[in-house]
């Protein structure tokens, strides 16, 4: 059974998946969504869950720096509830404060161009979210 990691934004969802042992996270893709038009990509996520026998989904939970939950955090809570209701998978909200900043720093250090960073930043953030969770379990 695999574990899926998601970095949910208002326009994209970065997707990562664990190996079968739950040791490492690999980036899969960045899914385009449109929160304003209620296009959340649930069909695509559901297909990934089904095709890969995903048992658990770790959803990045962007708390404010003072620990409170703002609009993006509430959006992540909604996304996690929808995944549970639609696909019967367990979801875990994982504190992702500064994950995107860390992902961007890694990509800059790897000398990835700004144009290419924009295409992979959300997927990289999903990898960091999922790997953080996996590390806490092992």
From TrEMBL:
What are the record's GO terms for cellular component?
A: cytosol
Q: Which Enzyme Commission numbers does its entry carry?
A: 3.1.-.-
Q: Which domain of life is it from?
A: Bacteria
Its BP terms in the Gene Ontology are: rRNA 5'-end processing
Is Cytoplasm set as a keyword in this record? yes
Signal peptide range in chain numbering: none
Record CDD domains = YqgF
Which Gene Ontology molecular-function terms are recorded?
hydrolase activity, acting on ester bonds; nuclease activity
- Assigned keywords, A-Z: Cytoplasm, Hydrolase, Nuclease, Ribosome biogenesis
Q: Which InterPro entries match?
A: RNaseH-like_sf, YqgF, YqgF/RNaseH-like_dom, YqgF/RNaseH-like_dom_sf
| Compartment list | Cytoplasm
What Pfam families does the entry give? RuvX (PF03652)
Q: Which family does it belong to?
A: Belongs to the YqgF HJR family.
> Sorted alphabetically, which NCBIfam families does this protein's record hold?
RNAse_H_YqgF
Record protein name field = Putative pre-16S rRNA nuclease
Q: Which organism is it from?
A: Mesobacillus subterraneus
